[in-house]
Amino acid sequence: MVFLSRKILCLAFQSAMRLPSWVAPLKRRAKAMVRGGLGGMLLALCGLSGAYAAAPDCARTYTLALHDHGLLYSAISDTGIDKDFADELMRRSGCKFVVSFMPRARIWQLIESGALDFSLSGITNAERDRFASFAWYFSNKYYLLVRKDAGVRSLADFERNERLQLGVIRSFRYSETANRFVDKLHAENRVSQAGGLSPLYQTLILNRIQGMVIEPFDYPALEEKKIRDFTAIIEFNDHAVPHGLIMSNKALSPPEQESWRLLVNGMRADGTVRRIFEKYFTPDLAAALVDFQAPR
Q1: What are the percentages of helix, strand and coil residues in the chain, rounded to 5?
Q2: Do the beta carbons of residue 19 and residue 27 sit within 8 Å?
Q3: Could you count the other beta carbons within 10 Å of the beta carbon of residue 191?
Q4: Which pLDDT tens digit goes with each residue over 66-90?
Q5: Strand partners of residue 234
Q6: Which of 60, 40, 58 is nearest to 49 (CA)?
Q7: pTM of the model
Q8: How many other C-beta atoms can be found within 10 angstroms of the C-beta atom of residue 14?
Q9: Which residue ranges form the domains of the chain, and what is each CATH number?
């Protein structure tokens, strides 16, 4: 009975700490509890940190952009993992958002300039770390999709054959080995760039390119395009790469970024992220994508 009461008390306290700004009186009361002795006891009792008090500030309208990429988002149907994730982000925060759709290359430009607050399913590198921060929510590996008639059984086979062309999405980066592979071919003028997956599939079907880099979200598209019969998949054998909510360093201060990071962490902790992924993948594959140790 004591355990149940403690659990109920902790859940109520956590919920109060996450209240959006439009319920200001209750939110102010929760923050006052943190500053006072009762809040300290509850934080200790529930095993929470003081940062839990920092809920997202909804004083302004935020901007978020989606990009068309397989199961992550389809502009035609306005559905996908990132769309579901964005909807939950808005619901939990209580903040107003203007959501748009644009090419990935344009998204990175606007994130860097501070003209865009958020995007989704982004990966980091040294250059992006200068202008963006991340709240991680899934992790996946990359693969090379090749035409069977290209006679390729390994990455080395593809690299050696100077007649083979690779297709990539403009501004996309991948895992370590995949990046080296792409950069090497790019230096040899053997890379064709496109704005999304659909143009790459078409050029692969027409044999204008013989390979393209894909990830798990692209597999259903392979079925839809009926190209599994004449393609094969080669693994890059890299570790899975974390993907997350992209936050502009110019648009959001470090404390603001941390408040959104806490919200995303809460979505992971209570199973919401896994439930979103299970709408699109088998339970085993969904678990493999969302159960990982997020970097800081």
Answers
A1: 50, 20, 30
A2: yes
A3: 16
A4: 999 999 999 999 999 999 999 999 9
A5: 144
A6: 40
A7: 0.80
A8: 16
A9: 62-140+240-290 (3.40.190.10), 143-235 (3.40.190.10)
